[in-house]
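If you are new to this repository, start here. Below is one unmodified record pulled from the training split, so you can see the exact layout before writing a loader.
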Amino acid sequence: MSPRSQGSLLVAIVVIAGALQVAAGVALGLASQDDLARAASFGSTAAILGVAGSLALCAVAWLLRGVMGWVVGALGTSASLITALLYSSPLALIYFGEFILHHFLTLLSAVIAATVVQGWALAPELERLRAAPALVGGAAVVALVGAHVGGLWPLELGWVHQAGSAGLLAAVALGLGLLWRSLGAQARAVAVVAALPAATRLALELGGGASFAQFFTEPTAGLLSGAIAAGGVGLFVLCRPRIDRWARVFAVISSATAVHWLFRVYEGSFVLLEPRLGGLLRSVFGFHLPFPTHAPGWAVLAVLAGLFGAGAAVLIALISSTQRARGAALALVVTAGLGLTTPQVTLMHFAGLLALLAALRAELGVEVDGVAAAAASVGPPAPIEGIFGELAERLEMAAPLLLEQPAESVVALRGELGRVAVDLRARSVDGARWTVLLRVGLLGRGAPIAEVLPDPQGGAPRLRGETWALGEAAAAVMEALSAFPAAHGRFWSAGCEVALGAAQARLSGASLEALVRSLARAVGQGR
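And here is the target side for that same chain:
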């Protein structure tokens, strides 16, 4: 798994765990004091073992992958939770499980933030100032983790929390400045509007200009309401990947329905819910929600517009095949909320912003599967339909198929070479940058026995794993792959899959022919 996909996986895990924590907070807030007392009386041992066992089994399932991974994950997690319920209760499991998630999310968010800034520090193409975000962000992460640990004891570490929050905001700003010349105008705007609400919230708090006890009556109400609206609506306008029209309609309707439901609950059940869920709401919105009849209509409309825009932008990005990493990062920002009330949610929010910068950089091809700028994104030197057509003639195959869809363009070439199946496909959302995937032979279901990895400095690719998997054709395969310095290949006993990566300056019918023939020879030997 590439570093990029590993980072996206960690972000997705934090988003899911954060959503579970929010659900647990709602369940605990709505429970009566007697129910909570009974849940606490069961003790923490069974719940902790059940939740921790489920997390461990999920980790094992991810390592196994495939069918066995699904079996271990589903059956093992279910058995662990059922066993815990036999010795406790559902509310007890939620009561103590929320505590575990609190620490788990803090640790994993700190890992994400530290990993992103460290990756920039190790990227030579970012030149002299690449260590600045790592130094500032690393110190901020340490401060927030220290404030989190210090919160287990009666220590006054509010100033450490504030310093860590300011440090992570500075790391985001430094990272954006570091990547400014690499990112396009649209990506820069996305990063700015995504960070705007948190920057405004933190500036108001550090400046002492906002008392969030009755937010809508403060002179600063317009600033934060405007920042929320600008952030959400800005993301909705800017995050516009090419997806199916009906999928976009689904995302918009889903977000609008959710926001409408939240408004109806706020308007009709505020008196009943605020005493129980007030703390959770402050953590999400960053201020005390006023009584519905006391809230200015413009402020409510601004916040609702921001929520709608952010929700629709996240859904659209997650549906897209090209911006899912961006969508996961934005989902983390939204899940963490704007309160920044604890080190945990602060780390989650800014880890999401840092992951967003990393995703924007990866989308534009500055970093693809860990390859530095020496293998930067370069499109094909000629129309890809013509390149595939030339390859079809060289291999004596049927002409390639061109499929134009609203969301993307696809060019496909399929056939056989020496009784070995060949499947070559290219996809693009803009007609300039193409994702090219080549499959030869029969792909295995388990982990590959060998991999070809790109060199981080843009040099010749390297082979990892069982080198015998390529047989006598190993030298020819590696020579053919040298034309694609960002390529990543996976090999099984009877087939292989190669993603050519973003460096396609040498993509031609001749280079593809050399690659296909060498791979077909390697696969044929393995049968």
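Two things worth knowing about this chain: The chain has a mean pLDDT of 80. The two ends are 26 Å apart (CA to CA).
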